[in-house]
Amino acid sequence: MIREPVSRRYARALFAAAEAGGLLDVVEADLRSIEALRKAHPELGYMLLAPLLDEPRKRALIAKVLTGRVHPLVVELLYLLLEKKRLALFDEIFEVFHLLLDEHRGIVTAEVTTATPLSESTVARLVARLEQDTGKSVVLERHVKPSILGGIMVRFGDRIMDRSIRRALDEIRERLLEVPIYD
Prior knowledge:
Elements: H1 5-20, H2 24-40, H3 42-49, H4 55-66, H5 72-83, H6 90-105, E1 107-114, H7 120-134, E2 137-144, E3 151-156, E4 159-164, H8 165-178
Parallel strand pairs: 1-2
Antiparallel strand pairs: 1-3, 3-4
Helix pairs in contact: 1-6, 2-3, 2-6, 4-5
């Protein structure tokens, strides 16, 4: 979830620069590499965010670890985030960049929640239906949540379709509570 509007601005600027240079795939791969590197070496992230380490040392660390491994555009983004004291926003910037890239490629991610796992044939039918409705390629993220009791919940973009049994029961309860009781 994107909490900081400034993350959107940085991601849009990075996307525009990468698109203008024909580097969208390169930048995407580099951002994924940095993410993987941070997961493999969490101490790197701690050092870059540590208030005791001054900016020149952090800049030197970025240069040592990333120069030659990732495109200079990505290194410059990290330097800018360091200078503006916004390195903590890297994950959100990466998330927004990925969303912009998917939008550019005509891909939408849909989250599907069911009480039990869906069969592959049901997933294929659902993807086909969502692609027909949206006119875009759909990537499905599946979640199993027994508390919905049955049915299905689908969320993509700002649209939510809730056809769960839990939702239906909640609606029935609300209607019953609205009925006046007379003695």
